[in-house]
User: Which sequence fits this backbone?
């Protein structure tokens, strides 16, 4: 649930079972409309709304961390007031702003499209998307939740456990939040829920009910405790659960360790040679950094001018002269391509997909989908590491 722009939905062709192996899961070919927002005028007000929503999302995660651990999260700014395998087919919900995939809960099965978010930890569905009373295996835990997301909205309701299925994966008593109100609007169809993929210390649910992938791993319902995002600017975006699909990337994965106790996929990195802390967050559209650090970056980029709107620092450049923005993870450079470095237009110029936020409530950069679209990223919960490689 991200920036509420013009409704765009990917056209899904018929589903076909992948032939690579018996447990390869389901593969669906995806199609996308070509009118990407990076080639249309930037709506600054709605972008700001999204950025403020991300700030609220992280503040809520910090509150959850305090509730779950009894400690303040070390990233929080004190001054400031998401034995089988499956291939989840990701639908482009809003022209590269959201990536929806299908999971199934209940008996009989109820299919729900979720937005997969590595920056949050809870799986929550709209009230009409998952209906516990229609499932013979749903169990009301009598535990309440309240969760905040990237557009500033909140979901609240009760936690249920139910049978879970995705491709050839099957698990019992997986937690799903049944929201009392519709927190994802119909304009985001087919998405009707959020599936958090981070670690339990930032979850809104009671600690007895783990994030869905952590539960799959603990039940040994997947071969490996790994999942892999490959988000493409064209067709073929996927989320692999329980395996690494090497056909999705070139060369070898470069691994970087993280501390799962902190909840987020947080690691050291560099951007154009400058050291930063980075959170890898599939539930964020842009790349967001503290204003001072982003200003330092933009000042050194040729042909880039800066402008500020609503406490947000933007960069603007001639569209035929894209600047070079390079992230380094584990000693491996990843340079944003022409499509990834731009996010919308301002007049005849392009707007940089890296922005600075005065209100960012943490000591880190939030590395979102603008980076995801040029790398295949593997999240390895078995070994507490994240792997990066250029997309094939």
Assistant:
């Amino acid at each position: 649930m991200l920036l509420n722009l013009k409704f765009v939905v990917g056209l899904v062709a018929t589903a076909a079972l992948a032939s690579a192996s018996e447990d390869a899961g389901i593969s669906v070919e995806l199609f996308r409309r070509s009118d990407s927002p990076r080639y249309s005028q930037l709506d600054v007000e709605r972008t700001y709304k999204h950025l403020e929503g991300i700030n609220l999302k992280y503040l809520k995660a910090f509150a959850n961390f305090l509730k779950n651990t009894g400690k303040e999260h070390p990233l929080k700014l004190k001054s400031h007031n998401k034995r089988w395998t499956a291939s989840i087919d990701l639908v482009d919900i809003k022209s590269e702003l959201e990536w929806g995939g299908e999971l199934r809960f209940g008996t009989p099965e109820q299919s729900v499209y979720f937005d997969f978010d590595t920056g949050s930890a809870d799986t929550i569905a709209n009230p009409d998307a998952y209906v516990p009373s229609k499932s013979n295996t749903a169990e009301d835990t009598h535990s309440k939740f309240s969760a905040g997301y990237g557009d500033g909205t909140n979901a609240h309701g009760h936690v249920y456990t139910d049978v879970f299925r995705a491709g050839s994966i099957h698990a019992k008593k997986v937690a799903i939040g049944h929201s009392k109100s519709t927190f994802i609007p119909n304009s985001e169809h087919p998405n009707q829920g959020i599936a958090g993929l981070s670690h339990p210390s930032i979850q809104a649910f009671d600690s007895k009910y783990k994030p869905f992938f952590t539960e799959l791993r603990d039940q040994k319902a997947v071969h490996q405790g790994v999942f892999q995002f490959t988000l493409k600017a064209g067709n073929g975006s996927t989320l692999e659960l329980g395996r690494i699909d090497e056909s999705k990337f070139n060369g070898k994965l470069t691994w970087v360790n993280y501390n799962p106790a902190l909840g987020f996929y947080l690691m050291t990195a560099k951007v154009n040679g400058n050291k930063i802390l980075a959170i890898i967050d599939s539930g964020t559209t842009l790349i967001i950094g503290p204003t001072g650090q982003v200003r330092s970056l933009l000042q050194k980029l040729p042909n880039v001018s800066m402008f500020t709107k609503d406490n947000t620092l933007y960069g603007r450049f001639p569209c035929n002269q894209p600047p070079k923005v390079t992230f380094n993870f584990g000693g491996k450079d990843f340079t944003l391509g022409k499509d990834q470095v731009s996010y919308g237009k301002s007049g005849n110029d392009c707007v940089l997909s890296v922005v600075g936020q005065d209100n960012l409530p943490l000591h880190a950069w939030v590395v979102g989908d603008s980076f995801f679209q040029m790398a295949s990223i593997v999240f390895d919960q078995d070994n507490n590491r994240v792997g990066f490689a250029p997309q094939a």
